[in-house]
Structure prediction request, 169 residues.
Amino acid sequence: MKILEKYLLGSCALLSLFVSPLFFVFFAFAGLEFPGSDESPIYIWWVTLTFSLAVFAYFYSFRYGLSVNKSELPFYVFFLALLVVHFLWLLFDSGQTEPLPRNLILFIGLGLPGFLTGRAVFRANAWQQIIKLAEPLVLLMSIGIIFAIVLPYFGDAIVTGKQIGRAHV
Prediction:
């Protein structure tokens, strides 16, 4: 596997792992306020984009062989069992249960991409590239948090939990 491919897989993995912090740090650096997903769908688009990149990276990793490792099997079994239990629950309690509850959507949108890109990185053996990319990214996120929370606090502004990433919760 080429080094550029490893860096691209590492970038997808980091986007998947830091999907929410990166979004809100970007808003902090830009000086923008995120009004919430009820008024602006940009966060939903961002999560959908990172999910799509994770799925692409996952299927791209099969380019080097279609085998599934034994260490991955428990996840596949767990994810399949989660879906089977949910749909069985729907069958027996269809009047009370939502077909796609919010927790399942959040798991699929925010949790599953981390596994998918992690599997791709494991397959490509791209750990070194992730470390090289993660160090400046975490530093950048730390600076964004300082600008969004710490500096306003010392400037006599009242900082509440709602101002983290300048999001209106």
